[in-house]
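Subject: for your reference before the review

Hello V.,

The reviewers asked for a structural picture of the protein, and I figured it would be easier to keep everything in one thread rather than splitting it across files. Below is the amino acid sequence we used in the manuscript, unchanged from the supplementary table.
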Amino acid sequence: MERNFVITKIKSVIYVGPEKYTEKRTVFRKELYYNELIFHYSGEATVYFNRQQLQTAPNTVRFLPQGSVSRYEVLRRESGDCIDVFFCTDRPISQEAFVLPTHEVSRMGLLFKKLFALWVSKETGYTFRCMSLLYEILSQMEMQEQRMSGGLHSIDPSVSCIQKNFLGQLPDMDALAALSGISYSYMKKLFVRRFGLSPKQYIIQLKMNYACDLLRTGQYTVSQASEQCGFRDVYFFSRQFKKYMGCPPSVFAKNSAEH
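And here is what came back from the structure prediction:
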């Protein structure tokens, strides 16, 4: 997360209750006009944002960067409520979306509630006080990020090996962990903390992202994309694709061609 930025404007602060989105799947627009910072009080969902897959749960903060979006979908396992802050900065906070669990749960949740209450009150000086609260929230997030970052980059050798070889022959999980000098169980724990996915899920996600790139070109059939991504069984590939991307590969290819 970038630290040397200035908040130039808070556009809106809204409360979203569980009755707002009752469907399991919601597709959002392809352009975010503002940064979004969302505190989730309840509910669980998988968020597909560009080429990322994020997991939201109670007491997590989700950041979405301003700009164009190739994909923004939410698949809900359980509806919940949140407070969403829309704001602008003089430079990007982060090029990527992220989800941050909050250890100071009561404090962070209370800060968002204070910010929302101030915003809707429209009392004299509320804009400056809202700015102050948003800076305090971001300060808490930075401290939380620093606490979490300790040890997370120790898996860099394993991550690098996966990124270079996910389409070919990868070492087994124990050998991957050995590249970083740790056990597989500890590597798995660090992967989940860093990416929100286990190592095996991370590998499949890379394959699915590559499959999307192939299908978008319109030059590969589903079977060809499956083979290129290292799947011997096209039916297994299709099931995995639907699980991770929310629709079958044939539908994804058709929709990509129409756009």
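For the response letter, the relevant points are probably these. DSSP finds nine helices and eleven strands in the chain. The first strand starts at residue 7 and ends at 16.

Happy to draft the paragraph if you're swamped.

O.
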